[in-house]
Amino acid sequence: MRVGLLIVAHRRVGSEILATASRTLGICPLQTRSLEVMNEDEMEQLAAQAREWMSAVDDGAGTLVLTDAYGSTPANVAVAAGTGMHCRIVTGINLPMLLRVFNYPERTLDAMAESAVTAGRAGILQVDDPGAI
Question: Comparing C-alpha atoms, which of 77, 89, 37, 33 is closest to residue 58?
């Protein structure tokens, strides 16, 4: 059993970051779906869709839900959908976070969520001297 993955993000953010990570690694090692949130969408309908997709990607190990900005509509949808579900929600999705998740698909849900947070933070750096790279 492997953890399933649901990305909930504004417009095409989730699908594009998913496509980039999959192309970079050459695979998408987890059952994954990406829910695109549009301004005109109804919160209740989005949460219902997210719950349905969380169940679809979960083969018994739970679902990791990655979303963009904490407090945003996608994050709120993820929280509403996650109530009562076997899931962990991590906000602030970025490419290093998703690559780490994909590189260790055998991890437990809790370990994967922790790893996503660690990789997401570690992937944010300020480059003071671009010539030094």
Answer: 33
Question: Contact 88/66 with Cβ under 8 angstroms?
Answer: no
Instruction: Name the stretches of the chain with pLDDT < 70.
Output: 133
Global pTM value: 0.94
Both tokens assigned to 57 = 């990607």
SS (H, E, C) 40-97: CCCHHHHHHHHHHHHHHHCCCCCEEEEECCCCCHHHHHHHHHHCCCCEEEEECCCHHH
Q: Give, for 55, the enclosing helix (H) or strand (E).
A: helix 43-57
Domains of the chain: 4-120 (3.40.50.510)
Tell me how far apart the terminal alpha carbons of the chain are, to the nearest angstrom: 41
Cβ–Cβ under 8 Å, residues 84 and 51: no
